[in-house]
Predict the 3D structure of the following.
Amino acid sequence: MSLRVLASGALTTVQDLGRPGLAHLGVPRAGALDRPAAALANRLVGNAADAAVLEVTLGGLVVTTDAGAWVAVTGAVCPVDVDGAPRGHARPEWLAAGSRLSIGTTSSGVRSYLAVGGGIAVAPVLGSRATDTLAWVGPPRVEPGTRLPVGPVLGRPAPHDTPRPPRAGALRVHPGPRADWFAPHALTTLCGSTYEVGSASNRIGLRLQGPPLERVRHDELPSEGMVLGAVQVPPDGQPVVFLADHPPTGGYPVLAVVEEADLWQCAQVRPGETVRFTRA
Amino acid sequence: MGAVDATGQTGPVHLRPVGPRALLADVADASEALALATWARTVGIAAADVVPAARTVLLDGLTAEAADDLRARLAHWSPQSPVDAPEADPGPVVEVPVVYDGVDLALVADRWGTDVEGVVARHTGTAFTAAFCGFAPGFAYLAGLPEELAVPRLDSPRAAVPAGAVALAGPWCGVYPTASPGGWRLLGRTDAVLWDAERERPALLAPGTRVRFVRA
């Protein structure tokens, strides 16, 4: 079976758990930005954790199906309807053959996830179906007219999955690896201030605006390997939190690293909203 | 030589924590970084990613046990540590055919105190090694030129450099795998395919690969 895409909103991509292990070749890891939401969508329709889903930015996805399938929409809150009739968010819904699923404009958060029983079965690239938006390794972005094959159904939907949703809060950070490039109070500034999400934020990084993080070393840092969640600080002192499509190497010092379990929040904060940091 | 401290003494490689699951090893230069990364892969350090760079190696995706294992084994490591495994075999030399018609040839010749023929002779006569990748999938930083032949980057990058452009920046040589903006000095171009995700070895010039440029 397959889905046919009628509308794809601001950005819709195929995502799974990503392709770690290729950073030494210059390949970003990619993968769903809000991992708990993508995992929940897969569980709700009975998929394995590594099944590919659609990551929808700010809503606007419309698909039809040529065969019946279980679907679930999770993540950013948005109206879900099938042929105009409202359906639930974060619960399995049956999409009959020939019907049309619409994901409306998100009312809070940024990224919603659509899982289909059997998983999105586009051809994997280097072992993963994730789309990296930095170098565009992986399947192309989903556009109107795209036909997305769906894999064989291997599990049953799980309508009673009611995990406690992860609680939003300050992003926990671990100091280093280049804390010595910053003034001693830089980490205190980071953890004691409110940072506003910049409009240039994307799957590569969350760009923040707030009290600058003062450096004491101004020489050039030779490029070095970067991790998911790295808080990189360019010369203007405004931090960038590296997300799934971050460049594998970078030349600005990293003051701290955000706890991986907290990174889902970076997928859901909107430009103009704020984030806070706290020491792990 | 291991890492050199302020007193000039060699000692164990310094490891910086990068969050709870990664360590960044400080080394002297790119060739030590490549040696350490090759060692870590060969002896089976359980890291999801081993990323050599100019003066560091990132070991990412480490469990606490793997990090302890790395610390213990690294205490005995030196860049000369023999690596006895087939993966350590540097393999064949990759030949990259180049048409030397880059717009910066004259500038490089001037910096090097020679003429265009002299640049080509030096470039084709140098044994390069892919030290690490960055910037784009399959973009390798090729070491081999001495520091005194370093050339400055453009102050402001060109909006478009074509795929296959062979270029210099600092002491590095690189080949653009795809068309992109770029600030390196252009020597010429190659038809070699630097990156193909469908190939068994997607990056033609993966770290550790030995490279020779030849006239096309």
